[in-house]
Amino acid sequence: MKLPIIGNLHQLGLLPHRSLQNLSKKYGPHLMLLHFGKIPVLVASSAEAASQIMKTHDMIFSNRPKSSIPHRLLYGSKDVAFSPYGEYWRQMRSICVLQLLSNKRVHSFRCVREEETSLMIEKIKERCISSSSSSLINLSDIFVTLTNDVVCKVAFGRKCGGEGNGKRAKETLVEFVRLFGVFSIGDYIPWLAWVNRLNGLDARVERVAKDIDEFIESVIEEHRNKSNVDDASSDFVDILLEIQKEKLAGFHIEHDAVKAVILVRFLVQQALINQPFP
Asked: Is this entry keyworded Heme (predicted)?
């Protein structure tokens, strides 16, 4: 039942995927139109409907609705995941597909994966030796740490953890990831955007945007000051800076676009493992 102003927001509950499943059983086995505030939302609840949207009519549904938090944290949505469909999106996608995620490039990071896997195995051995026979070793945390270490080294050329600046970088990245899952009422009911100022969300987003920008700028500056960078030791930052400097993409890449692409690659990987740093 759609209500004035809030639409169907009240029907989502704490587990939206379960709520949507129950609603689809009652109101539509294939397609169902809801309203989240002023935003119309078409729910596809069958494989056939999803195929029509994702394949047959993909151009019509290719744009994401603008979200205030990603827009602020990703430099005005200059990344690939949140930028609107168009020439800019096609250009940035070609860089990701041909330069960052090609089979050759993925293979070039094999040494990073092997090195971190060896370190993980040694860590498990040490814990087995030092622990009593009744102690348990949390392999889930170890595997998540492995994935994060690989992702950070591939993206930034260094791990994000430890003490000092590494610890601060880790905390900043954790908060960066968390904000993408925060509900912003202004995105759905624009005239209630002032609520985000009262509850501290706007200030939180601005603080993280400032911290994440300082972090990624320091990473880029480190890479610009490096010497003797070869393909074997190149990470995402090296690759994007080379493309920008040599104009290998055939068009000018803005500095903010470089930062946004690096950050969204990290964000996607965190979404795939479904949790931030342990």
From this structure: yes
Rounded mean pLDDT of 97-109? 86
Q: Mean pLDDT for the chain?
A: 85
CA distance linking residue 58 with residue 36, whole number of Å: 22
64-273: which CATH architecture?
Orthogonal Bundle (1.10)
DSSP H or E run through 43: strand 39-44
The pTM (predicted TM-score) of the whole model is 0.81
Q: What angle do CA 99, 236, 93 make, to 5 degrees?
A: 40
Query: What per-residue confidence (pLDDT) applies to 49?
Result: 92
* Encoded amino acid at 191, one letter: W
> For 184, left (φ over 0), alpha (ψ -120 to 50), or beta?
beta
Residues whose CB falls within 8 Å of the CB of residue 46, separated by 6 or more in sequence, listed in order: 29, 30
Among candidate residues 53, 47, 41, 48, the one with its CA nearest the CA of residue 11: 41
Structural domain boundaries of the chain? 1-61, 64-273
- What separation, in Å, do the N-terminal and C-terminal C-alpha atoms of the chain show? 40
86: left (phi over 0), alpha (psi -120 to 50) or beta: left
Q: DSSP string of 161-182?
A: -SSTHHHHHHHHHHHHHHHTT-
Confidence of residue 234 (pLDDT cuts 50, 70, 90): confident
